[in-house]
Amino acid sequence: MIRVNKLNKSYGDLHVLKDIDLHVQEGDVVVLIGASGSGKSTLLRCLNFLEIEDSGEIYLEGNLINPRQSDLTRVRQNVGMVFQHFHLFPHMTVLENIIEAPVHVKKTAKNEAKKLAMELLEKVGLADKADQYPYSLSGGQKQRVAIARALAMQPKVMLFDEPTSALDPELVGEVLAVMKELAMEGMTMVVVTHEMGFAQEVADVVVFMDEGKIIETGTPEQIFESPREERTRQFLSQVL
Ligand code: ADP
Ligand code: MG
């Protein structure tokens, strides 16, 4: 589904991603872990072409995406993204938030977009909130709306950047439950999270990043129970 070859990205003098190689198979959940500043968000943003790499290649479904030539609006339709801070449109209802991109970007008929939106709200347990505005929702509810909104474009891959980091602890579980359900339905997902329980339970592949490099990749068992690299061990001893 995704193949990244030797990706490099700098901000000025700061070399943030260093020769990143990453393969994501269809249906896999890949969890990216690593300390703050290690480049996890930048990598996700490159996968969605919110950032453009300096060098290297990104293939989606086998197609090389040249960000300087490709129609990125179309490419992004296949790659949904959920952010730490929800980014809902505050002046739109929940339903309007969800149908916005399908109607205006994908040109889906409004009735059809509404029908899918209601199905997605049902799925994330918020069908009764369709006509509410974001301010009236809890953080966990906002994030579930943000997930429904990303799914409304019917993406092939979903990227999650610390989707539960801004939530009160008691609201984390409801968002992780939705993500877990999505994973079980076979969605291809790349998830940046500090929720090690989620990584252990749901990930097919765990990737540990440090200082812009992928240090180690493996199954949750390999990474959490017998990490090969000292740096992985150190990081895990701080977070587990
Ligand atoms: P992580 O998500 O792992 O915390 P980031 O990808 O956000 O790491 O950041 C990696 C490094 O790149 C950090 O040193 C950060 O300060 C820097 N950085 C991120 N975005 C920008 C930007 N737009 N301009 C300059 N530096 C940035
Ligand atoms: Mg980040």
Automatic annotation (TrEMBL):
Lineage: Bacteria, Bacillati, Bacillota, Bacilli, Bacillales
Domain ABC transporter residue range list: 2-236
Keyword Transport in record: yes
Predominant location category: membrane
GO cellular component terms listed in the entry, alphabetical order: plasma membrane
One Pfam family of this chain: ABC_tran
Keywords attached to this entry: ATP-binding, Cell membrane, Membrane, Nucleotide-binding, Transport
Xref: SMART domains: AAA
Gene3D superfamilies per the UniProt record, alphabetical: P-loop containing nucleotide triphosphate hydrolases (3.40.50.300)
Coiled coil: none
Name this polypeptide is given: Amino acid ABC transporter ATP-binding protein
Membrane topology of this protein: Peripheral membrane protein
InterPro entries: AAA+_ATPase, ABC_ATPase_HisP-typ, ABC_transporter-like_ATP-bd, ABC_transporter-like_CS, MetN_ABC_transporter-like, P-loop_NTPase
